[in-house]
C-alpha cells in the first residue's frame, strides 16, 4: 500500500473521529439543556428531597459537567446508553425494536422519490421553459412547500376515509397484529418469511400512503436538484461538440451529461434518505407509525434524557455512515476519484 493511500486512510479516520467527538459533545449538551428535570421525570413531582437526591446521585447529574461528560463517553464506548424512563427497557433495545419500521417506510419513500425524481428532473431540463418543464416545476414546488403533516392528514381523509383505497394508521389492521412472528422487524419481510401473503398485502396497503407522501416530498427535492445539475451540463461545450459530431440526442444526454452528474446525485439521494430516516417524525405521528420518529417524540415530551441523547447520537452516526457510503459509491461511478 502506497504512502499516499495510507495518508488518505489516516486522514479520513481522523476526520471521522473528530466528527464523532463533536457529535458526543453536541448530544451531551442537548441532554443537559433540555427544559425538563430528568430526576423529576423519574421520581415525580411529589417525591421528597431525600428521594430526589438519591436518584440524582444514581444518575450522576449532581457531579461536575466535565465528570458527567467523561462518564457519558465511557458509557457510549461500552455500548451502554442507559434505560428509558418511559419503557423501563434499555434504550438501545427500544431503538432496535422501532427502527425497522422507519427504515421500511424511508426505503420505500426514497425508492419512489429517486425513481421518479431523477427522470423528471432530466426531462424538465431537456424541455427547459416548455409546458412540461413548467408543470414539473409547479408540482415540485407544491411538494417542497406543503407541510408534510397537512399532506398526511389530507391523504388519510381522501384515500382512506373517503375512498377506502389504502389502510389507515399503524403498520397493520388490528385483526392482523400478532399473526406473524417478528423475525426481522420489517413487516413485509416477516410476512413473506411466514408465507402469510394476506398479512403481507395488508402491511403493504398500510405502507403505501405514508411512503408516497414522504416520497413525494423527497421527489420534489431530488427533481429540482437533478434539473439544476442537468441544465449545467447541457450548457457545457462538450454537449454541443457531441451533437455537432453527429451523436444522437439520447446518447449525448444519458451517456455524457447524465454520467457527469451521477456523483452529485449520489450525495443528494444519500442525504435525502438520511433526512427521511430522522425526519419522519410528523408523518409517523399522523399515521400512528410505531417507528423511530414517534419514539423520539414521545420521549422528548416526558424528558427521557437517555432516549433523546441516544436518538440524536444515532442520527449523527447515520449521516456519517451515509457520507462514507457516498464516498465509496463515488469511486464506483467516477474512477477519477479512486
UniProtKB/TrEMBL annotation:
The chain crosses the membrane at residues 12-34, 105-126, 138-163, 203-222, 265-287, 307-330. InterPro entries: BPD_transp_1_N, MetI-like, MetI-like_sf. It is found in: Cell membrane. It is a multi-pass membrane protein. GO terms for cellular component: plasma membrane. It holds the Pfam family BPD_transp_1. PROSITE patterns: ABC_TM1 (PS50928). Its main location: membrane. Keywords: Cell membrane, Membrane, Plasmid, Transmembrane, Transmembrane helix, Transport. GO terms for molecular function: dipeptide transmembrane transporter activity. Belongs to the binding-protein-dependent transport system permease family. This is ABC transporter permease. It comes from Rhizobium grahamii CCGE 502. The lineage of its organism: Bacteria, Pseudomonadati, Pseudomonadota, Alphaproteobacteria, Hyphomicrobiales.
